[in-house]
Specification:
Elements: E1 4-8, H1 13-24, E2 28-33, E3 58-62, H2 68-78, E4 82-85, H3 92-97, H4 99-120, E5 125-131, H5 153-172, E6 175-181, E7 184-185, H6 194-206, E8 213-215, E9 221-222, E10 225-226, H7 227-238, E11 245-248, E12 254-255, H8 256-265, E13 275-277, H9 295-301, H10 309-329
The structure holds NADP nicotinamide-adenine-dinucleotide phosphate (NAP) and ligand G4F.
Length: 337
């Protein structure tokens, strides 16, 4: 019998890669999907299995991190060996516009899930999707011992979740771990995060469908890795004998401007001819520089990244060009669910 996992945020970038990874490892994967008035399962359509299919290994449930009772009921029904809490309002800029909502889902949502595990009385391990955004103003390189100084409602909510996870480990002996992941991207990255916004724009400018790209602060430094490699680290954290917290990063810094240059140059385009500044994309308080030191993950998990930001920019541009060509040819078909 394979293991059973429950993933919150299964419809997101990381949730979709993690579901693929766990299915390949012969897990039965249960995913928590929130109700939406439009389809929100595009990233997992290719691994979806019909409810009528016998012996299926991918099962979706409607629930929400704002509904603690639904979480208890779901855990009692699924009885997972492992829980991955990836669900969140994950956009930093948006968290300034919706701070209460972000606090509720990204912060309290974790506490609801931890309490639901306790209330349901099941024996399970839980991974919490913590973030380098918690380091905020703390200068790089950042590691597990760097003090947190969050700079956004999102960062504050993630700090709350981080400490709630540590507290449930210490108070109740729960196998609860924090993965402190630095920025990680892919062709499945949400379209409003800066890397994907740039690579989509490159594809559209190249095709003559767009002329301008409006961005905010180009000086911010980030440590961008490749999402499929980062979900492997999540899984490894839950396979250890003891629960602990780990930074996951490439350790390689780049500015938004560097990424912009590499993405445009990969198609022979000059970014300076297309990019304009719009203050609406600036944040009331910015995180200037995030560069991770992932030596603990390397030493204890045997985890090391292979893809660096420049290669990432190229592969994301290529994927956006291919997706656009498919869209323009009319070959893209939506699957109803
Ligand atoms: P993402 O693409 O934005 O996915 C977020 C997921 O959370 C989506 O499935 C979303 O559902 C779901 N969600 C939102 N509100 C919810 C609610 N109220 N109840 C239940 N689910 C809800 O994020 P990601 O990039 O995959 O990141 C995964 C996790 O890692 C997040 O917690 C994020 O904060 C954290 N993280 C990400 C990075 C990064 O660089 N990607 C770095 C550090 C930490 P819909 O699809 O319906 O919107
Ligand atoms: O792509 P971003 O929105 O990612 P950010 O704020 O670093 O947050 C991401 O990484 C965190 C890990 O550190 C995650 F926890 C979080 O969930 C999310 O995945 O912005 C990156 C940088 C920022 O400095 C921002 O000010 O790009 C700058 N930027 C400049 N122009 C822009 C834009 N960001 C966005 N989203 N859109 C712009 O037009």
């Amino acid at each position: 019998m394979g293991k059973t996992a429950l993933i919150t945020g299964v419809t997101g970038q990381d949730g979709s890669y993690l579901a693929e990874l766990l299915i390949a490892k012969e897990y039965t994967v249960h995913g928590l999907v929130r109700r939406s008035s439009s389809f929100n399962t595009e990233r997992i359509d290719h691994i979806y299995q019909d409810p009528q299919q016998p012996g299926r290994t991918m099962i979706l449930h409607h629930a929400d991190l704002s509904d603690g009772v639904a979480l208890v009921n779901l855990l009692r029904e699924v009885r997972p060996d492992e829980v991955y809490n990836l669900g969140a309002q994950s956009h930093v800029r948006v968290s300034f516009d919706s701070p209460m909502y972000t606090g509720d889902v990204t912060g309290l949502g974790t506490l609801r899930l931890l309490e639901a595990i306790r209330a349901s009385g099941i024996d399970t391990r839980i991974y919490q999707a913590s973030s380098s955004e918690m380091f905020g103003a703390a200068p790089p390189p950042q590691n597990e011992r760097t003090p947190f100084h969050p700079r956004s409602p999102y960062g504050c909510a993630k700090v709350y979740s981080y400490w709630s996870t540590v507290n449930y480990r210490e108070a109740y002996g729960m196998f609860a771990v924090n993965g402190i992941l630095f920025n990680h991207e892919s062709p499945r990255r949400g379209e409003t995060f800066v890397t994907r916004k740039i690579t989509r724009a490159v594809a559209r400018i190249r095709a003559g469908l767009q002329e301008r790209l409006y961005l905010g602060n180009l000086d911010a430094v980030r440590d961008w890795g490749y999402a499929p490699e980062y979900v492997e680290a999540m899984w490894r954290m839950l396979q250890r004998d003891e629960p602990d917290d780990y930074v996951v990063a490439t350790g390689v810094p780049a500015t938004v401007r560097d990424f912009l240059h590499a993405a445009f140059a990969s198609c022979g385009l000059d970014w300076a001819r297309h990019v304009l500044f719009d203050p609406k994309y600036e944040r009331p308080s910015e995180v200037d520089a995030l560069v991770g030191d992932a030596s603990k993950a390397r030493d204890l998990l045997g985890w090391q990244p292979a893809v660096r930001w420049r290669e990432l920019a190229g592969l994301m541009v290529e994927a956006d060009i291919a997706a656009l060509e498919e869209e323009l040819s009319g070959a893209r078909v939506r699957i109803d669910r």
